[in-house]
Amino acid sequence: MADISGHRLFKFPKPQWMNSANTRTAGVYAAGALFSIALFVFIDAATFSKSHLNGSDFHVNFVDWIPGIFSVLGMLVINSIDKSRLSADNFSYSGDGVAWKARVVLFMGFAAMAGGLAGGVTVLVLKYYVREASWPALWFGVGNVVANALIMLSSVVLWVSQNMEDDYTYNLAL
Amino acid sequence: MAGLKTIIVLSFILAIGFLLVILSAALYKNFLTLLVVATYVIAPIPNWLCGRASSQDDFMDSGSSSIVELGRFMTGFLVVMGVALPVVLAHCDLIRPEAMIMSIIGGLLIYSTIISFTMFFHQEEEF
Fold this sequence. Notes:
Chain B: One of its GO terms (cellular component) is Vps55/Vps68 complex. The complex is a heterodimer of chains A (174) and B (127). With 174 residues, chain A is mainly α.
């Protein structure tokens, strides 16, 4: 273990539990849980808009769903990519430009996800905040932003736990 | 190893869980909370299917297969859905808050019964 820690960059070593298989499994479960919370925040806003508790003139249309659709598409794209292809140009067996293609697709995924979050904020500001919605109707916009942020967080957790796997197998190979 | 006592205790817990969910539906004449039972019954299925789909791999690929991780992702999704669904229904005044509490507790009891049943009797399937 000491020879590995000689190569590290930071003062504090990575904690040992970060590399265990149980943490990886828990990370994948947590990503699913976060994605579920995000989807149900969306659904709660849409259902509340349709229920009799919503006395205002504000309603959830298809416009409110567009940022969420983009976030989900970005998450699908990001997590569909084989992570080992990102450094494929360092090896000679792969064809020309595999890593380049992977980075382009990954960039489109990240752009879709960031666009989803930005679109959530846009809907909150333009559709609800500018037109002076009070609290129960303001929840439609706030919930939109919260749901997009949770989808992004879920994607981050999934990404980190999938990269953790590579470190684990690397340590196993040593 | 897991004896008769375990089966009896687990079946009692399962019956109490079903009782709570059905009571939360029938007491308030609103049967939307029965969706919780469907969610928790479906919840372990992705793990079983994906674990079966990846079992042909050799030792080096075990644990790092991405289809197993897809199954775990969907399991986490469905478990949280079982809690989030009554909360959404209660927040939008489709069910009463009492029905929400009863169906959440009942659903968690049902799910923990399923999980502990598979944990107790998993070794005996392999022989």
